[in-house]
Amino acid sequence: MEYRKIRDEGDDKETGIEDVESLREKSVLLSGAVLDNRLASVGETKTDSHRAKAKWKLKSVVTLALTILTSSQAILIVWSKRAGKYEYSVTTANFLVETLKCAISLVALARIWKKEGVTEDNRLSTTLDEVIVYPIPAALYLVKNLLQYYIFAYVDAPGYQILKNLNIISTGVLYRIILKKRLSEIQWAAFILLTAGCTTAQLNSNSDRVLQTPFQGWVMAIVMALLSGFAGVYTEAIIKKRPSRNINVQNFWLYIFGMGFNAIAILVQDFDAVMNKGFLHGYSPITVLMIFNHALSGIAVSMVMKYADNIVKVYSTSVAMLLTAVVSVYLFGFHLSLAFFLGTTVVSVAIYLHSAGKMQR
């Protein structure tokens, strides 16, 4: 009896020791799990932090690129003139812009084909029904892009940078008419402010004329705004008709037709000059820079939509207006008046309100 009692007590002690060891093992495992979770959490936090930094850097680069490209666009066109005239053929310059954009689209597609292979959505081969819609926006862009060279006979670079924002109004109204999209009250208010800002920036206190830009300049600016707005809305309708289609394929066909229409423009307008003086006659380094600027501007806008947001575009446009004015002071002797500064401020606020109204819609 005593032996069995002692043996039972020994078993109880061993069981107690095993329980303690088991508790220790569980405690160690639990501590390890908590430590692993903490390390994983720290790792995820560091990864998120790196991603946020990389995204911020990319957004900053895109914003800076768009601002520089937008502000230098008008400056380079004016700077490419000699004694108030274009020594080169503007139709050939426009043709090269479309060719460069087409080449950039092909390079982007080649990278996609290498990474994903050729699919139904990214192949270049297409049907007549799909491609027949592209000549309309291509023709509209042709007229608009040619007009932007001739408008500088009536406006300066800063004035052009202000007036081209009128395409926001035309785009908004055409959205309502063609795509049946409702505009918010904020957006309508932004249109009124934008018109007031453009007019204020053109006030001229040093002349008998009330506005710096003559009537012909305003007509050309309004026509350009309508063409740009209609072409933009029509192109968006084409893209959304088949949203799965790769954007580079759609751009490629748009630019192909753009090249075709510009080739016709060369034959009609500058055939003799090209035949007698050469295709690149009158070109200078500034002209080449201008061509690259025009081609890359469209790519930069696409990158903003993909990697940043619409607010970035608003800030870039606002800064570009002021930057164009400041650079024009040194290059072309532009007079930075109080009316221009106030008008630019009002236009910037109007663009911001339009963007805010679009997000609230």
UniProtKB/TrEMBL annotation:
Record flagged with keyword Secreted: no
Keyword set includes Membrane: yes
Coarse class of the protein's main subcellular location: membrane
Subcellular location as annotated: Membrane
Topology relative to the membrane: Multi-pass membrane protein
Gene Ontology CC: Golgi membrane
Keywords: Membrane, Transmembrane, Transmembrane helix
NCBIfam families: nst
Name of the protein: CMP-sialic acid transporter
Organism annotation: Arachis hypogaea (Peanut)
